[in-house]
Amino acid sequence: MGARTLAYRAYQRVLRSGLAPSTLPRHVGVIIDGNRRWAKAYGTTTHDGHRAGADKVVEFLGWCDEVGVEVVTVWLLSTDNLSRASAELDALLEIIPDLVERLVETGRWHVNPVGRLDLLPAPVANRLKEVGEATAAIDGITVNLAIGYGGRQEIADAVRSLLAQHAERGTSLADLAEQLDVEHIAEHLYTSGQPDPDFVIRTSGEQRLSGFLLWQSAHSEYYFCEAYWPEFRKVDFLRALRAYSTRHRRFGS
Fold first, then answer.
1. Is 90 a catalytic residue?
2. CA 64, CA 5: separation in Å to the nearest integer?
3. Which of 116, 108, 95, 88 is nearest to 52 (CA)?
4. Residues near 117 by beta carbon (within 8 Å), at least 6 away in sequence
5. pLDDT in tens, 176-210
6. pLDDT grade, residue 253 (50/70/90)?
7. Environment class of residue 214 by beta-carbon count within 10 Å: exposed (0-12), middle (13-18) or buried (19+)?
8. Is residue 157 annotated as a catalytic residue, yes or no?
9. Which of 75, 142, 218, 241 is deepest in the core (most CB within 10 A)?
10. Where are the domains of the chain?
11. Rounded to the nearest 10 degrees, how much is the dihedral formed by the CA atoms of 242, 195, 61, 151?
């Protein structure tokens, strides 16, 4: 083992030892960005970039497990991505199911696909739904896999679900308007029943949310990392957690 590796591991231990459980987020959201740029930088294919990104998701979840994160939301495929060139989209729709199966095989996590699964090919959508049901009782991290996800679409779906529910009850629009509050809508979000994300990480140097968890992230802390997602390291994650632990959350005040 080289001196550089030993130094790197020692630095990890120092960062980890400085993180008190009380200062860590319960729910971490991650916008995985930079797969294609990583592939281009290393002279390989976009498919290889997305494959490397999938490998990093498995690794990242292990890190979250180690520090005691309860919920992780990983944005794998946006509704905008569904309009990409067919060759790249076909590759993603091959890689994502493989990733899901790898997560299931660990037996460690509740894998919870969220998004417009009806926009995906039927075999993929059906398998994702089966996985959500099959892993629901696992007492581990809840892993929300945002697939065919868009923040505005989620809010529209929540309102549509709320209206349909009250229509079945015979509630008039006037009565609904009178009693409606934010919690009623929150109950119909894809992440209903979960804590909102405390911390949102985005890789590749981009500093925007792009519609990720628009409703839920109202009071989240954000962290933008320069590394492309496939080269995001454990030490980068621990640095992010260190940054989070030093912040004083005001929750809008």
1. no
2. 22
3. 95
4. 125, 128, 129, 147, 148
5. 999 999 999 999 999 999 999 999 999 999 999 99
6. low
7. middle
8. no
9. 75
10. 24-245
11. -100
Q: Where are the alpha helices (DSSP H) in 135-231?
A: 151-169, 173-179, 182-186
Distance CA 225, CA 237 (A): 9
Residue 50 labeled ligand binder: yes
Which residue among 33, 112, 196, 198 is the active-site one? 33
Q: Does domain 24-245 have CATH number 2.160.20.10?
A: no
Amino acid 240 reads: A
Instruction: Encode burial over 122-152: b for 16+ CB neighbours within 10 A, e otherwise.
Output: eebbebbeebbeebeebeebbbbbbbbbbbe
Integer Cα distance of 187 and 195 in angstroms: 12
- What integer pLDDT is reported at residue 96 of this predicted model? 95
Selected catalytic residue, list 48, 55, 65, 81: 81
pLDDT digits (tens, 9 = 90+) for 54-113: 999 999 999 999 999 999 999 999 998 888 778 889 989 999 999 999 999 999 999 999
Question: What string of DSSP letters covers 55-107?
Answer: HHHHHHHHHHHHHT--EEEEEEEETGGGGS-HHHHHHHHHHHHHHHHHHHHHT
Of 1, 9, 58, 26, give the one whose Cα is nearest residue 232.
58
Q: Is 144 annotated as a binding residue?
A: no
CA gap 190, 116 in Å, rounded: 10
